[in-house]
Amino acid sequence: MAAISAIAKFGLAKFGKLNNKIFHTKLFNGKKALNSAAKKELPAAPKIPETPPREYTLKKDNSKYLYHLTTKQNWEQIQKSGKIAACEGVDTLKQKDVFMFSLENMLNSWSKSNNILSKDYLDNILRKVGRTGDIVLLRINAKALNHDKLKVRLLNKIFSLFKKGDFDNKYLAGENSGISYIYKQRKSPFEYLYTDNISLKDVEKIGESKFSGNVYSADSKKIMTNLLKDSPEKGFSFLI
């Protein structure tokens, strides 16, 4: 009886294992079937559309005056020739331009962004002009300019291209000046390009200063203070 009982126990144990194996197999197969069905029923993930570049409405640049820095010697030549001559530069795609700026934008933003050539854009331009002579500030009647020939360039973008050595980039030719109001609102440092000569009748000298600094750095505050102190724009001095 004990022997039968042992065999019975063995049989029951074996049957239990077999039954358990069948149960787990069915359960596993059932899960596979459920998972497979679930995968078929799940909708495909929606494709996220690419964000298109934001477009801004172009508005006519409303600047009353734009400004140009040059040397005293060049100012004398401008008076003789009767014009500020547009010149080709290494960064103008063989386009002849006159470089100008908004005085408010220069004083607000040009000293607050580092670039690869100088501690700031204002310092850089004052060194570039001042190393060849006394600096003269010219005021240009922007209302007299042909706005189809007036372009703008972000200085951060320009110097980024300089750093890469990309002097063939189309951006160097400038953007439509109708975007300038956005750059003014953001206080982004930017410059103007005028793709033609500018008549002397639309230009006046409003300031002069000796260069103050060295080959590595300009005393921007002192130079700009001197340029504006006797000018119609001396009210901008608080921005220096």
Give an overview of the whole structure.
- This protein has seven helices and ten strands.
- The chain is an alpha+beta fold and 240 residues long.
- A five-stranded antiparallel β-sheet has the order 3-4-8-6-7. A three-stranded antiparallel β-sheet has the order 1-5-10.
- The longest helix has 40 residues, at 2-41.
- The N and C termini lie far apart (111 Å).
Summarize this structure as a short list of keywords or feature phrases:
single chain; 240 residues; alpha+beta; five-stranded antiparallel β-sheet; three-stranded antiparallel β-sheet; 7 helices; 39% helix; 18% strand; disordered N terminus
Put simply, the count of helices is: 7
Spatial shape: globular
CA radius of gyration is 36 Å
Strands ordered across the widest β-sheet: 3-4-8-6-7
How far apart the termini lie comes to 111 Å
Level of helix content? 25-40%
Average pLDDT, all residues: 83
DSSP strand content: 15-25%
Low-pLDDT sequence parts: 1-15, 21-28, 114-118
Main β-sheet: number of strands, strand sense, barrel status?
A: 5 strands, antiparallel
Give a short summary of the structure.
The protein is α+β, with helices and mostly antiparallel strands and 240 residues long. It has helices at 2-41, 72-81, 103-109, 121-130, 155-164, 180-186, 220-228; strands at residues 65-71, 83-84, 87-88, 96-100, 135-141, 150-154, 175-176, 190-194, 198-199, 203-209. It has 7 helices and 10 strands.
Chart the SSEs and their pairings:
Elements: H1 2-41, E1 65-71, H2 72-81, E2 83-84, E3 87-88, E4 96-100, H3 103-109, H4 121-130, E5 135-141, E6 150-154, H5 155-164, E7 175-176, H6 180-186, E8 190-194, E9 198-199, E10 203-209, H7 220-228
Antiparallel strand pairs: 1-5, 2-9, 3-4, 4-8, 5-10, 6-7, 6-8
